[in-house]
């Protein structure tokens, strides 16, 4: 009589060959740091990249009629949600745009209302994203040099996670979420390690895959690779540094990054990450075989710090403990030379 | 508590009253002619009663010189009186010979605070390192208990040449934990709850009784002791127990409610009275009835007050029905406390306080130790081949120019379809597919390189022993002890062992896997020996 | 779209010849709609191929899918092949160029195609709003449903609709009128989206008969699915066939035209949710209620169920709609009716009545869970498992006896003969029942012939050996 059992006590078949058709929410985080784009302008122009991103967004929306998208931009001053816009913002921005478009004669933009060849849903999203993104780019605050090297990836990730949390978990809609990070990266870029790692751990816990598409020569490849690795995301470096080229971005996006979270268990991911999991000293940044570990914050050191304090958590070590670490074995009268 | 009987002495009707507290017997005539007779029960040497078949119903009490005789109207009364007297006399005599313990003995422990009884001197297992290391028996038992540990011990000490003291010196904590757990004994428990009268085949009731149980019972319930002492010289033991287990006294001590259906037993029911339960008497020092007019607190309580609708809970009812229940609960609580005190690790006052129920106090948050972590920005970055970070100045103007130019000449989506890009797209696809193939390839190699379980086992044993030796080596290295050289020798032997184990693997592919698996351990041994050499020379 | 209807549309499309499909793929809207019907792996693969100029190697696809999900890959490839989106050669897979071009156009735009409908650029003098459209859709649709159930609300659907109902087997002609069939009962229990698709598929089937180009019909249907609610569209974008269809669709309440000669039309909610999730759709009566009450916002009313089912089999339905009450009456023994509620009980008789009319237990259970009150939906089990199990058991009761036609073989001369023949029957696999004690057995009709021959051969053998 188990056949008619109304209660669903059986575990789901893990080898379920039929895919669940849940819609998914894609959070795209776009690097809007103009100097970085300027550096790679010979390889790909911003507008080309923007167009590619829009096509990708349309493709994502095409996959399922309830798919939704969230676009966030970040630069040295911070991060901002570009789509969905705050209500009220939309009308003012589009008005601005129309004014601009009237003054500049660009045949492509003006009849946007009259171009009916694109699916309406795509069109509305595209327009808002374009407006907001260009806004962000145009109104970049070019502040002092030192501060230009900060990058607000952690802020952008937090915004994305917050948005996902609200729309998927709090509102309890049946959606899967994922994050795509499109970064260009300045070579002197500095990323706040701990806040970003916290965001990665949060994404890991919520089972949100974080994909990374790297277009430029930014540093911190290792740390972004780690992010993809721990969340089972895809890492692709298509910058010239990696002997590839960001040209053809749209094809990269449509073939590498299009896969839905519900499809991912069934396919091999085209990820390029080879994370080096070896331990590294916090002081010298070299890889460490045998070293010392702080008993409070667990940071690894290859030598005893000269100021007797831990570099990360600032605890002082007592003389006695440090002296004990430096002891050597007693020399015997007869030296036994051991041949390994 | 006193018993009164109608009795006639020398043909004068009177009232015979026996007081348990004062251990006195007093006979007062109804009509005041004769003098009352007072007998101290401790002095009673002989007690006689007329036999069953005799017509007379008389009781003769010999206390000292003069015997007194009392006549009763019916046999039953006489029997009762005789029983009471017997009990009291034997008790009085006993008390006379053994002076009673000081009044502050049992009775003073009130339920609120527990005074810990003197620590029982017991053979305590020493918990310090030295004795643990010397206790071979303990070590043997632990090895037998834990198979894992036994295996490691066999591999390192028996086969590998490690000294047992070395082995245990880093595992003292395991020994200590094991010693503590194996020394735990079961504490005292309410023995009456274990005695369950079972009904036999032909309606006989059987009870299992062992001398230990009897001893426990006397320990926990002094009333039983009293009853036993009073009656057993006279009654047979089996009879006594038989009657005891059927009596209401037994039920009361177990904490069950006494219903009117239970059989009464004149002998046993005497002990039901509160005079035998000193503690209860002391605890119930409050007067029975507090006038409602005065008892403001009692009137106010929500639970007790009937104006709130439902009848109050069984434990909250005023009057005699409430008292029975409450007394039962209280006596059980007292018993539990007594047992806890008797146990071997009595609680200090502070610890006793922690036993109290605290679920109404609200949650205490977790206490975290705050770490002051310095926010250094590029922490965790491994240096690749780049040297220092160089800061090229930022050209804000160029950037603005670039953005504006881009904004004015946007790329439409449709233009992406242009043939110019085809080559790029093809290449992009190729790269993506390459990544997929690479991933798939590495995946497949993982599948193929599974080691044969037997080989794996052997290598694991060798590996564990090596790690053990490495641990000891580093321990000694840091301590600067003299053992270091022998440890260095042992490490050399380890390498030989590893090579031997790997050499034993016949199959080509497995051999390769084995070599790969042991490579990192060998590196660590080499590293250790190098450090040792440097230390020796430098 | 519920998976049932995905499947039926898929089946229909797979049945079309390649040339037709290629013509179908010339409309980006259709490409998009068909794209969304495909399984997930197919969609991912296609996306990777739209901009790629070269065909992809079969080995690439094999490498992409994990070995444990082989079955998925095979199913996907099969489906894509049947729909002529992929053509496979020895080592390569080529995507249908028309499909590729037009799907890309849907994503990228700019080629001035009109498959997504052309909104009107002139103002409508008699503009209507969304609430009106909803009300209109509901009233049209419910008219049809009421007609099927038999409640009289005064209006009858147009002849075209009646024709459709007859041809689809939902109603049958009887004594001058139409009577609902078993299939019709099942139809009533489905949700609106499924109902519309049933009718549309039927329309599609009839269209070939009526010499309407199925490509046009499908294009129009898919275009409707991509239109925006509340926007009026011009007829200039439609072909003749499609204009003709408009009249029929008007009768179903899928589109609204002020009069037959209007140059514009409005899609209703029934149209715009043709290709979307059922969750986004309100049932027809709920829309009507919401429109009349005029208070609840659309998202809230979207999932307002109205049925409460207790574990003692009692049912309380907070509805006043005669349609819903009529539907409930099919399988619930309704006892009392109040101003805003009807109550009743599900018992064996009521469920048997439904079962005898061809409704399955699954349909009843689905209907109940879809229309369950939000309070019920919040619980771990939406419907009490006891009731669900019992409905299924009542259905099983109908199958207590299963009749199979067969031949009875009896009166064997001796036990040996019986044993031989029955063993032979068993080996053939045609033995249905045997009783060795009485030396009888029953075999299937088909197998009886062979057994008779076997017996004849055996008797001959015995006779010859005896002689």
TrEMBL record, chain B:
Concerning InterPro entries, the annotation shows:
BSD_dom (IPR005607), BSD_dom_sf (IPR035925), PH-like_dom_sf (IPR011993), Tfb1/GTF2H1 (IPR027079), TFIIH_BTF_p62_N (IPR013876)
- SUPFAM superfamilies (alphabetical): BSD domain-like, PH domain-like
Q: Region Disordered: which residues?
A: 92-123, 301-320
This one is known as YALI0B12452p
**GO biological process terms, semicolon-separated:** DNA repair; nucleotide-excision repair; transcription by RNA polymerase I; transcription by RNA polymerase II
Under Pfam families, the record lists: BSD, PH_TFIIH
Q: Which Gene3D superfamilies match?
A: Pleckstrin-homology domain (PH domain)/Phosphotyrosine-binding domain (PTB)
Q: Which CDD domains match?
A: PH_TFIIH (cd13229)
GO cellular component: a single term = transcription factor TFIIH core complex
Q: Where is the BSD domain?
A: 121-179, 201-252
Q: Which UniProt keywords apply?
A: Nucleus, Repeat, Transcription, Transcription regulation
Has keyword Magnesium? no
Q: Which family does it belong to?
A: Belongs to the TFB1 family.
Q: Give the location in the cell.
A: Nucleus
């Amino acid at each position: 009589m188990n056949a008619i059992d109304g209660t669903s006590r059986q575990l789901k078949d893990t080898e379920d060959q039929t895919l669940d058709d849940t819609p998914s929410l894609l959070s795209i985080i776009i690097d809007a740091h103009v100097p970085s784009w300027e550096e790679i302008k010979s390889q790909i122009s911003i507008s080309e990249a923007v167009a590619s991103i829009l096509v990708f967004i349309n493709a994502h929306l095409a996959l399922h009629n309830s798919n939704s998208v969230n676009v966030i931009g970040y630069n040295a001053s911070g991060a901002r949600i570009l789509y969905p816009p705050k209500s009220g913002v939309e009308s003012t921005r589009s008005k601005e745009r129309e004014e601009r478009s009237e003054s500049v004669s660009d045949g492509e933009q003006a009849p946007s209302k009259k171009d009916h060849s694109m699916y309406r849903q795509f069109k509305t999203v595209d327009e808002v994203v374009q407006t907001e993104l260009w806004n962000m780019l145009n109104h970049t605050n070019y502040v002092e040099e030192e501060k230009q090297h900060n990058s607000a990836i952690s802020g952008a990730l937090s915004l994305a996670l917050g948005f996902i949390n609200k729309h998927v978990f709090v509102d309890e809609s049946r959606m899967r979420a994922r994050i795509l990070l499109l970064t260009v990266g300045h070579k002197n870029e500095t990323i706040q390690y701990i806040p970003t790692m916290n965001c990665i751990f949060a994404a890991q816990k919520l089972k949100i895959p974080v994909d990374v598409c790297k277009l430029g020569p930014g540093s911190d490849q290792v740390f972004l690779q780690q992010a993809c690795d721990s969340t089972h995301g895809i890492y692709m470096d298509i910058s010239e540094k990696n002997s590839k080229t960001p040209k053809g971005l749209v094809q990269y996006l449509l073939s590498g990054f299009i896969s839905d979270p519900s499809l991912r268990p069934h396919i091999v991911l085209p990820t390029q990450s080879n994370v080096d999991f070896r331990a590294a000293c916090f002081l010298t940044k070299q890889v460490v075989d045998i070293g010392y570990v702080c008993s409070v914050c667990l940071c690894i050191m290859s030598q005893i710090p000269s100021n007797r304090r831990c570099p990360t958590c600032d605890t002082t070590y007592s003389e006695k403990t440090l002296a004990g670490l430096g002891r050597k074995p007693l020399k015997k009268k007869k030296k036994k030379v051991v041949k390994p | 508590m006193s018993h009164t009987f109608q009795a006639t002495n020398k043909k004068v009707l009177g009232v015979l009253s026996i007081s348990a507290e004062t251990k006195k017997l007093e006979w007062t005539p109804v009509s005041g002619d004769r003098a009352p007779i007072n007998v101290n029960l401790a002095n009673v040497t002989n007690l006689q009663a007329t036999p069953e078949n005799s017509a007379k119903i008389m009781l003769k009490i010999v206390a000292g010189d003069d015997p007194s005789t009392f006549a009763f109207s019916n046999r039953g009364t006489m029997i009762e009186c005789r029983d009471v007297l017997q009990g009291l006399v034997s008790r009085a005599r006993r008390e006379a010979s053994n002076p009673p313990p000081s009044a502050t003995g049992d009775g003073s422990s009130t339920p609120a605070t527990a005074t810990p009884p003197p620590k029982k001197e017991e053979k305590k297992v020493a918990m310090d390192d030295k004795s643990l290391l010397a206790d071979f028996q303990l070590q043997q038992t632990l090895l037998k208990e834990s198979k894992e540990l036994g295996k490691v011990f066999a591999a390192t000490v028996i086969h590998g040449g490690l000294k047992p003291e070395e082995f245990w010196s880093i595992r003292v904590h395991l020994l200590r934990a094991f010693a503590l757990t194996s020394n735990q004994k079961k504490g005292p428990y309410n023995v009456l709850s274990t005695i369950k009268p079972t009904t036999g085949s032909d309606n006989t009731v059987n009870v299992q009784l062992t001398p230990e149980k009897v001893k426990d019972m006397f320990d926990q319930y002094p009333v039983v002791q009293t009853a036993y002492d009073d009656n057993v010289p006279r009654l047979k033991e089996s009879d006594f127990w038989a009657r005891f287990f059927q009596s209401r006294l037994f039920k009361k001590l177990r904490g069950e409610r006494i219903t009117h259906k239970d059989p009464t037993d004149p002998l046993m029911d005497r002990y039901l009275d509160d005079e035998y339960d000193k503690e209860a008497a002391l605890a119930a020092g409050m007067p029975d009835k507090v006038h409602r007019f005065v008892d403001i607190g009692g009137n106010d309580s929500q639970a007790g007050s009937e104006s709130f609708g439902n009848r109050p809970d069984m434990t909250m009812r005023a009057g005699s029905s409430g008292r029975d229940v409450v007394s039962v609960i209280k006596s059980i609580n007292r018993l539990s406390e007594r047992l806890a005190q008797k146990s071997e690790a009595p609680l200090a006052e502070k610890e006793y306080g922690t036993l109290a129920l605290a679920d109404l106090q609200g949650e205490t948050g977790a206490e975290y130790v705050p770490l002051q972590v310095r926010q250094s920005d590029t922490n965790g970055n491994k240096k690749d081949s780049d040297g220092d970070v160089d800061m090229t100045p930022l050209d804000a103007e160029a950037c603005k120019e670039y953005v504006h130019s881009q904004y004015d000449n946007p790329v439409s989506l449709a233009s992406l379809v242009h043939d110019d890009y085809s080559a790029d797209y093809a290449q992009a696809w190729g790269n993506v597919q390459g990544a997929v193939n690479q991933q798939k390839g590495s995946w497949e190699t993982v599948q193929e390189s599974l080691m044969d379980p037997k080989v794996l086992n052997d290598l694991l044993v060798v590996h564990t022993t090596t790690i053990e030796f490495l641990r000891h080596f580093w321990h000694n290295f840091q301590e600067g002890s003299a053992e270091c050289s022998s440890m260095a020798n042992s490490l050399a032997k380890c390498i030989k062992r590893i090579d031997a184990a790997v050499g034993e693997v016949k199959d080509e592919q497995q051999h390769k896997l084995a070599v790969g698996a042991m490579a990192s351990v060998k590196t660590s041994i080499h590293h250790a020996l190098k450090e040792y050499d440097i230390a020796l020379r430098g | 779209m519920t998976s049932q209807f995905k499947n039926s549309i898929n089946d229909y499309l797979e049945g079309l010849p390649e040339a037709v499909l290629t013509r179908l793929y010339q409309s980006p809207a259709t490409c998009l709609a068909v794209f969304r019907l495909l399984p997930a792996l197919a969609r991912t693969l296609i996306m990777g191929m739209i901009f790629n100029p070269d065909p992809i190697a079969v080995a690439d696809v094999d490498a992409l899918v994990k070995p444990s999900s082989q079955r998925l890959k095979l199913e996907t490839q099969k489906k894509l092949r049947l729909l002529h989106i992929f053509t496979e050669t020895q080592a390569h897979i080529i995507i249908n160029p028309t499909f590729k071009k037009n799907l890309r156009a849907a994503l990228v735009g700019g080629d001035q195609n009109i498959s997504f409908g052309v909104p009107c650029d002139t103002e409508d003098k008699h503009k209507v709003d969304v609430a009106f459209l909803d009300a209109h859709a509901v009233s049209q649709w419910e008219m049809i449903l009421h007609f099927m159930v038999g409640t009289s609300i005064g209006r009858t659907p147009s002849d075209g609709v009646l024709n459709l109902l007859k041809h689809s087997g939902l109603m049958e002609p009887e004594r001058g009128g139409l009577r609902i069939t078993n299939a019709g009962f099942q139809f009533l229990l489905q949700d609106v989206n499924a109902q519309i698709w049933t009718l549309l598929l039927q329309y599609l089937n009839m269209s070939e008969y009526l010499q309407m180009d199925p490509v046009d019909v499908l294009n129009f249907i898919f275009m409707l699915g991509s239109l925006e609610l509340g926007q009026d569209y011009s007829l200039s974008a439609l072909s003749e066939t499609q204009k003709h269809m408009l009249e029929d669709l008007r009768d179903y309440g899928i589109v609204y035209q002020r009069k037959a000669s209007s140059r514009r039309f409005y899609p209703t909610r029934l149209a715009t949710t043709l290709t979307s999730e059922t969750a986004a759709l309100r049932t027809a009566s709920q829309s009507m209620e919401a429109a009349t009450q005029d208070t609840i916002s659309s998202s809230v009313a979207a999932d307002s169920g109205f049925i409460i089912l207790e574990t003692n089999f009692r049912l309380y339905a907070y509805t006043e709609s005669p349609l819903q009450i009529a539907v409930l009456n099919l399988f619930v023994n309704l006892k009392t009716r109040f101003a805003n509620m009807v109550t009743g009980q599900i018992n064996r008789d009521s469920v048997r009545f439904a079962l005898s009319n061809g409704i399955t237990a699954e349909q009843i259970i689905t209907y109940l869970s879809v229309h369950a009150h939000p309070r019920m939906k919040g619980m771990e089990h939406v419907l009490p498992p006891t009731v669900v199990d019992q409905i299924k058991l009542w259905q099983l009761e109908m199958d207590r006896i299963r009749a199979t036609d067969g031949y009875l073989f009896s009166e064997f001369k001796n036990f040996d003969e019986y044993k031989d023949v029955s063993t032979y029957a068993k080996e053939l696999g045609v033995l249905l029942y045997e009783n060795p004690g009485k030396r009888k057995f029953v075999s299937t009709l088909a197998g009886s012939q062979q057994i008779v021959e076997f017996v004849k051969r055996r008797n001959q053998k015995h006779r010859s050996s005896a002689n």
